Amino acid sequence: MTDDQSADSGNQRRDVVVPLRVYKTVTVFSTLFAVASVVAGFILVDVATQLASAPVSEIDVPVAIAGIGAILAGTVVYAFSTRFRTEEMGKSKDDADKPSDNG
Amino acid sequence: MSLERKDEHDHKGWMESRDLTPIESVYLTVLVWLDKRLRVVDYLEILEDLYYKVNMQMPKSHTEQYNLDNKFWYWYPLYALGSFSTVAYVVAAISGALLGFYYAPAAAAADGTPTIAYDSVLIIMGQLNLGYFLRSVHRWAAQIMVAAVFLHMLRVYFTGAYKEPRELNWIIGIVLISLTLVFGYTGYLLPWSQLSYWAGQIGVEMSLSIPLIGEWVAQLLFGGFSLSQSTLQRMYILHVFFLPFITTAIIAVHIGIVWMQGIAEPH
Lengths: 103, 267
What we know:
The structure holds two protein chains of two kinds. Chain A is 50% helix and 4% strand. By secondary structure, chain A is mainly α.
């Protein structure tokens, strides 16, 4: 495991190095899941509030909470996926050995 | 024999060798489980591979070869106008086909009430679910197509792309821009509103002003010298039957010739 919390003080980001193929799996599926659940969440919120036109008394609270929950779940999955990286993907500050010839 | 690629990696054991939190290992296990079943990543990798192979076969363009990019780059967005017109055409075709389920080309109702055609447009705009949206998409696609086709023609003219050996496609393009305008005109008459009606009247009188064959043209296109049910019927059939077939076929030829001849390089 690679847990370089030591180097960057103040930023307690955890890094998990995984094989490239697993990294691709994580990126593709977490993005798919995040997009699907955020869209589904908005649809649920729309259904619960009748496209934000329902008076407060008619809002379907469980469905609305389920919708917000789905949006949050998508966000969490996406955010969680950012801790995985491959060998080559050093943090940008560690990339000093690579020449910056982009320009 | 296995189709799996052989490599050094320990596919089964690697996860144990890492110090993962329970959430991380569950997360990875779930995603890897999904990946093994759905294989989305494999297909994306095939696409990536194809992308690079296709691009490696591309020869250097004229502008790259002679280093003209620095002088010519601002023309490049205008090279998308042909595709843009095609996209607008496809959008108009799809939305138009859907509108066709609700529109009725009948100019009946002489008792002062609105005609059936105008009423069906009112129903689309006022009562049909997403009807306002659908008709707006159709209208905007039509407006954009006319604009894009015209700008496409300007681009072809000012980059000299009409020159030998592309004269034929230039002529076909002139036919296509005319057909686009006829499409627009016939569609404009279909709501049978005041705007449509008087635009139709102008059309009749313009036809009648043609020397010698004017009356014949007015009869042929408008079904008479004054507007009637047969005018609306003709506009409808032109708009949804004649023009779509003719225009789609000619667009196919137009694009086919571009495909065969290649994009005209600037000089």
